[in-house]
Structures are given as C-alpha cells and as structure tokens.
Amino acid sequence: MNKPVVAIVGRPNVGKSTLFNRMSSTRQAIVHPTPGVTRDRNYIEVSWSGIEFVLIDTGGIEVNSHDSLLQGIRYQAEMAIKEAAVIVFLCDGQDGVATQDIEVSRMLHKTFQPIILVVNKVDNILREPEFISEFYRLGMGNPIAISSIHGLNINTLLDEIISHLPQYKEISPIDEDTKDERKKNQIAVAIVGKPNVGKSSLINTILGEERMLVDNVPGTTRDTIDTLITWNDKEMILIDTAGIRKKAKIEEDVEKSSVLRALAAVKRSTVSVLTIDCNEGLTEQDQKILSKIEERGCGCIIAINKWDTRPLDEETETLREAYANFIREQIPYLVFVQVIFTSALKNQGITRLLNLIESTAQKHRKLISTGKLNRAIEKACEEIQPPTIKGKQLKIRYATQVKAGPPIFSLFVNQQTLFTPAYSKYLMKKLRGEFGFEGVPIKFAVKQK
After folding, report:
1. Is residue 245 predicted with pLDDT exceeding 80?
2. In which domain of life is the source organism classified (predicted)?
3. 244 annotated binding-site participant
4. 120 known member of a binding site
5. Residue 400 annotated as binding?
C-alpha cells in the first residue's frame, strides 16, 4: 500500500523547512532566514507511533506574484496540496495573521483534504492563548501552537496528523529489518553538474511531471531533493542537486550550503551522473566535479544534455562517437567513465540512461570469486610480463576481492615498489574487460608478502 502524504504549506519564512527537519529528525532541508530558499518539493518518509507517511516540504506561497520563479514555487506547492492526504498550514505566531496568510487560507479553503492550522514560533507555551487567538479568523478550526526550533508540541502535531490519515489504524507497524534491506538494495543516483545544464529537467522528464522547479535563472535548485522511482523492479533514489559553481563565484551563504549538499549527495550515491551542456563541452569545473566523483569511488556516467539543440544536419552516429571521444581525451585518468547523449526537452536517451544507471550499479556491487580473479590475473601476466626493476621482477602471488561498492582488490606481491603505476593501469584495464566493470572505478590494495 502507498504511504499517505502530508504537505507542509504556508507563506515564505514561517519555518516550514525547520518543521520538516524537526518532524523527520534530519537536516535534509536547507534552513536560512532569507525568504524563498525552499523552491522544489522535498520528500521524506516519517514514522510516528508505528505509522509511516511521506512528508513534503514546500516553498513559500506568494499567491499574487507575477515573477516566473515565484509562480513556479507556487505551482510546486499546489502540486503538493493535490497529492496530500493531510495539509499542515503553517503560520508565524510572532508576526500574527499576515495578508499572505489570508491569501493562502483562501486557496486552501477550496481543497477537500483535512487541514491542520499550526502556529509556529510560539516559544513560550504559557503565552499560547495570546499568540494563537487571532488565527481563529482564518476559519481553519483550532490552531496548534508549536516551536519547530525548540521542538515544543511537535508530538501533539504528529498525533493530530496520524489521526487524519486514511485507514491509519490498518497500516502495519514498520518492519525495521525489511526497511533496512530495502534501503540496502536501493540505487542512489546523484544528478550533478554546473548550474543551468538541465539537471532538474532531466529528472522531471524521467518522472513524467514537473516535480523539480525549472527556470533559466542559474541556481534555481537549492536543496538536494530525493525522489524514489522504480525501474525494472529496482528502486532508485534520484537526487537532484544544486549547480556547482567555482568557489570564487559563490557569494551567498545559501549557495555555499547548497553546493556542500550537492557534494554530500555524491558521497552517498552509488552512481553519479555528471550532466553537461553539449554546447559548452567539458569545462574545468566539470573536471573538478569528476575528481570528487572519483574520490568517492561511485560509478560515473557523463550525460551530454541538450543534444537536441545541435543542428539537424550534424546529427550522426559518427558525430556522437567523435564528441564522446573528445570528452574522454580530456579525462584520460578516468577511463572507466561512460558517456551518453540526452535531451530532457525531447525525452531522448532517457530510457538508455536509466538502463545504464541500473547496469552500472550492478557492476559497482559485483563480487568476483577468488579463483576467477587469480586466473584472470595469471592470464594478464602471461600476456604482458610484470615489470623488472634492477634485475628483480614483480610477482603477484595471490589476489582477492576485499570489498564491493566500489570493487577493491588486495594484491599480495613480492615487493611493493615493483608494482608500477603503468602495470597497475594495465591490470585494471584487463580486469575491467574480463569482468565487465565499465563505468566503475577499480582500486588495488597492494601488500608485500
């Protein structure tokens, strides 16, 4: 059974992201005093009293704004409202009832779902009556006074939420073992790249809906947004991230936080998809992002996006191959990286991208038996003899895989200094070809024995 959805909505800067983080016991949403930091719908699973539901954080609703970015934020909030089984309407107790609160309440009165009016920033429960009395005029029933920062009355709010969930008493308690096993098998996919290369558009095309806010203004995405999908009966978590610019160009604290979260998304990913604009090619900043991906050890795919913007008379397989080779020539140290061509706008290459993500994740987690591994290394050593330095030849006595995700192999040799970078590169190439480790980094732990 699908988990019920609970949406937190309200005008800007009333503490929605702080409440989202408090209820989910995470720091998934960026919290900053600047209005408009949250822009997309941010989803997370929450459990209370053995009941699970999906919580959505939304951007601040500005009902009458004509700004395209703010209209996009409002659209994302409206989509969350349509999806929700329960709506948490959050207001600011310090400010009292604002004009924007009244505008949002009029919008919510047109819905049919249960609405829980919550008054935030009530840090002194003894003064609760004076804070909440004027909110009765919004016509939303009895307000619940809370403090998201201090955690006051959050339990009361959660109890109220689950009381409104459809058939909540019939939802089975969480099986933690099943939950852990499910998370273990999920494929985390970080969609990363510079600003405005089409990362959010790519995810929207995969989902078949405008889940992520898309605008021509660089830096539209702020939070890292996790979206769970199923592909070929496998669960994938698509992580939309903020565009990563050069450090010198990062000015706002919010953007610094966004970039750090984007890099953290790479660290927790099984596969990272570096999205680049085909009209710009692989830039210096892209190469720096690739170095972070290599450092993490996750699988890597370069998605050359906006391919539909190329002149039609240039659209040939030969051109694609030449372009892909040109990209690979710029990153000779990352021979394992796979290249694919996409167009989020035209829905081109999306199925192939998802299949490539799935196969790359499988290779990332692959385990090779010790017998097969040693036979492959013996064969490689027969084809090209190990190096000899000052009359002493390298001997690989034994090998075993000690870890997957990424694959790490322990090699026991007669002398570590004889294991040259050139021969290491050769062995990696042979193992990649023998066992199908395309798209995945291979690491050696060389030990003297």
Report:
1. no
2. Bacteria
3. yes
4. yes
5. no
